[in-house]
Amino acid sequence: MVARFVIAVFATLLVVATTSRDDVAMLQQSRKDIEPSGLQTTQADSLEDMALGPLMLKVKEECLSSTQQCLPALIEARHRVWPYVQAELGKEIKPYEPSSFSADFASAWLKDEVCHGKTFFLLHVWKAVGWGGIENLQQLMGGNVERHNLGGDLHPYDCQNVSHPSTFTFVRDPLTRFISGYAQLEQLREQYYHQDAIDHRKNFPPNPVLNLLTGKPGSVERAMQFLDRFFVDGVLHDGHVRPQSEYFVKPYGNKCLLAVDFVGKMENVVGDWKRFLDSQQCHVTTQFNLTAGRHNTSSDTKHALAEVAGIVGAASFVELQAGAQQSMERALLFQKVYLRALCWLYLVDYVMFRYDLPRGCNHPDMLHIAQLSNISVSDS
């Protein structure tokens, strides 16, 4: 059943793009090759007056360019899809708005013999390569990367007065990332309260909302409780489930012009990592290390956490996390209203990063956006 659901998630291609060159593929081109959407909009055009389809394309244009209009466009898009979210859930909920997110960056200066003395900035999107990308960047650099926060210690000098800067990131299928993000939030909660997890208590306090959920860990009931709260406040705007488009919002007043040059996909991280390095004319032959950056937990702690969670049959920490993940998958499989509501809320991400829509997301207005964007929705 879970396998059928996962297959369905990747069944069809939703992409954006009415561009002047048929929407140049993001993964094979640097940002300078990605052309505007060809919507014939001007500075005078009001976001409020734009139809939903063109508005989605406008959001993509502004956010991939990291302009100050990214956040206003995201907010307008949220308000425009919210009536659909409410209709799916069958209740009135005040829309919570996208907000500025102090994104983390890792910067690395690469030697001339590696990549011509260039400086790379990796935008860390949670639950999408993230730590693995940082550790691979360190291996490429031959030392420790510098960590920055766009809303704090990353100043104009850091991102402008450097040698040949280039910014890249990796994203992930919105629905599978949401499911994985929920599973990790449950995992972090169990780690925090485990007696041996002192470091996690200090560094990774759990999302307090999870302590309010009454369902048993690993149950569909608990996953549905999480979903109900997610449509109220994004579970306190947690970065594990926050739409990836919001990571591209530049904090107000920040003068670091870190427009993202390359957006790769977690699902093709080995190939996309190579494409990015090739686009920068780097002299690198080693592949992306898929084992780097994984969150490690001792064997004893893994088994203890599985027992604490009370998930039937969970014999390891991996299975504990899988139990939470599978419960969310079942909730979305049997409660299609949640699935369709998520598709509306994450529609910007599907459009912006060219991901397939799940089969169940076939509302007529969503199909209209697909037709506008010259894409199709799977019937399998």
TrEMBL record:
Keyword Signal found: yes
InterPro entries cross-referenced by the UniProt entry: Sulfotransferase
Signal peptide span: 1-19
Record keywords, A-Z: Signal
Name listed for the protein in its UniProt record: Sulfotransferase
Annotated organism of origin: Durusdinium trenchii
Lineage: Eukaryota, Sar, Alveolata, Dinophyceae, Suessiales
